[in-house]
Amino acid sequence: MLCQFSFQNFKSYKNETVFDFQATSIPEFADSLLSSGKGGKLLPVGVIYGPNGGGKTNLLLALSCLISTVVKPIHDLEKNRENIVIQHRVGCTPFLFDEQSKEEPTVFEIFFRQGKNEYRYSLTLQKDEVVSESLYWKAIGAKKTGTLFERAQSEISLGPSISKAGISRSVNPKMPYLSFLAINCDIPAISEVQRWFESCIIRNYANPVVDSQILISHEETVREKIICALNDLGIDLSGYRFDEEDKQLYTQRIINDRVYELRFGDESNGTKKLIAVLPLIILALQEGRLAIIDELDAKLHPKLLKYVIGLFKNKKVNAKGAQLLFTSHDMTTMKNTVFRRDEIWFAAANEEHESEIYSLYEIRREDKERVNSTAAFDKQYLEGRYGADPYLSNMLTGGNWA
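^ that's the sequence the OP posted. Answer follows.
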């Protein structure tokens, strides 16, 4: 489970930026929080709102860049241990609106739980080469931290738990040492970290091609869950099948005791989106994966989006500790009946075109108090009280055209 992700000097983000999945001490939706042993509770869902060009997508790209940088060498050599669902490799681009930043490295750090342990991994890249890298671990809830390895360019030191004579410390400068160890060594802690990175699901639904990229499951239990979810959402399907000969997916409906089939391409956009996204959501929930989805709300009715969010917040459905991180423009789900205040984040660019993020929980009213849990989040956002969308006030008042 993801606890925290931070990065610096990536695309529209110049300064250090921290996204947190660690739950704050607020009472709402307490029964939806994820827990593991003695560690603090984590959020099952995080959503990022904000204007176009504010940095929503770039935040997800930063996380995707770190994940794909680690996973790609492993996948290329077919050494992966998990079924990988990552759209593509994301390149590392620094902040370009500053003469100094574009010559400086990009820094990533991620803190997550896997099994009974917590891991903190950091990676610094510059022009596709590794400047520094480190991996630390501790038991969940423990105070003592152990070192697995530390790297400063070509100099690598191993922690006592993995220091063995046969482990090479010579690695391509463009390859993370974590990837190198995962490919070449059988070290339990490294394998555990590798599995977490490989388990992350990444999808960008701003790209229309993704709607036609469908994860087909031949397991009957998974098929039944997909059909059940579609039926719950008012889409009356009885089944589906994939024709290997013409490489075509067909949906099935029973009308007057007879099965009728329809080509996937002939379904409505909303139905196609659901059929594309539900297998990924079910995979995440079944295996406790992190799903990172840009523009999840694209082509989805707000009720359907609320349904998907609710799956992750239902402890009976989400028994394995899956998490959903997504961007959205949909205001109808920005409500206290859907989200906790610490699950709602905003991304916006300042006058220097630098993106910044902050959670609704962090915002203070004029009286210095936090936004109330019973507030109309969507209404206050549209009124500009949260400061994430400076264009909305212009549109509502006529702006420069008035």
